[in-house]
Amino acid sequence: MTTTSSYALVTGATNGIGYELAKLLAQDHYNLVLVARSTQELEQTATELRQQYGVEVETIAQDLFQREAPFAVYEAVKAKDLQIEVLVNNAGQGQYGEFIETDINRELDIIQLNIGAYVVLTKKFLQEMVVRNQGKILQVSSIGGELPGPLQSVYHGTKAFVTSFTEAIREETKETNVTITALLPGVTDTDFFNKADMTEAKLVKEGHRADPADVAKDGYEALKAGKDKVVSGFMNKVQVAVSNIIPDSLVAANLHQQAKPSEK
Predict the structure, then answer these.
(1) In this structure, is residue 15 part of a structural domain?
(2) Distance CA 200, CA 263 (A)
(3) d(CA 246, CA 31)
(4) Is 135 inside any structural domain?
(5) Most buried of the four, 49, 154, 157, 206, by CB within 10 Å?
(6) pLDDT at residue 263 tops 70
(7) So which residues are the catalytic ones?
(8) d(CA 64, CA 173)
(9) Whether the model pTM is above 0.85
(10) Which of 10, 99, 12 is nearest to 57 (CA)?
């Protein structure tokens, strides 16, 4: 049960899965701390959620590509004297293309966003949750973490880290009342593929894209139930299950074909 002073922090909260998760939390009367890069988008989202759900919404504009940014987010929460009951690590980006040709600085930014920010925010808020013996964390990972991803090698690698890291710290804290849940979506209809320059890839252009609201609902229900992990979408469950049976080299070859530019 939430009280009027319960706060949930969501990164990447102004669009896509993060925005849908923020709405679900607000529906359940959580006050919100929204984190994103754009002050303008944050204010628009905050105003909308305040008006629609009558919750308090704090905003923190930080660029989580920067190494010091997640620390700054934590310090801003402390300065506002807020207690975070639910942490949602959601912000993430990818880059499309062959590894030998892609921009290494962009990739280092992606590693900082997809891994560094998750690690810092998880550590800072998990320490508090364990002391209180109460709290929930949702790590938005990806089925990409279960599968080698040619033409998205760094992104898939970061998501493998997130899932593995989540499983390890869940074991470390299993004697507490804190729950840590990993959400593994597949291809979802968000701005991710525009940012990754990946809109022409076969799996994006020709394949099914999940509704971010459906993905968020799967993740939120798993979070509330304290589940370890949820793969969102039936076909994604099938894909992950099959990939556990056939050799990684075949999985990689198959995904390579799917990730190549569409000829349609």
Answers:
(1) yes
(2) 9
(3) 45
(4) yes
(5) 49
(6) yes
(7) 155
(8) 26
(9) yes
(10) 10
The DSSP call for residue 146 is G
Alpha carbon separation from 182 to 107, 109, 230 (Å, rounded): 23, 22, 6
Structural domain count, the chain: 1
Which has the higher per-residue pLDDT, 204 or 140? Answer: 140
Strands in 7-11's sheet, in edge-to-edge order, are 57-61, 31-36, 7-11, 84-89, 135-140, 178-184, 229-231
Domain membership of residue 245 as a residue range = 7-259
Tokens of 71: 């620390």
User: Can you give the pLDDT at residue 205?
Assistant: 86
- DSSP secondary structure string for all residues of 102-145: S-HHHHHHHHIIIIIHHHHHHHHHHHHHHHHT-EEEEEE--GGG
| CATH code, domain carrying 209 | 3.40.50.720
User: Of 21-35, 72-86, 177-191, 192-206, where does mean pLDDT reach its minimum?
Assistant: 192-206
Residue showing tokens 């593994």: 184
> What's the token pair of residue 190?
């968000």
* 2 inside domain: no
DSSP annotation of 183 reads E
Residue type, 159: K
pLDDT one-digit tens code per residue, 49-89: 999 999 999 999 999 999 999 999 999 999 999 999 999 99
Asked whether the predicted pLDDT for residue 2 surpasses 80, the reply is: no
pLDDT tens readout for residues 109-138: 999 999 999 999 999 999 999 999 999 999
Task: Please report whether residue 191 resides in a domain.
Answer: yes
Q: Which of 59, 60, 50 lies closest to 30, judged by CA?
A: 50
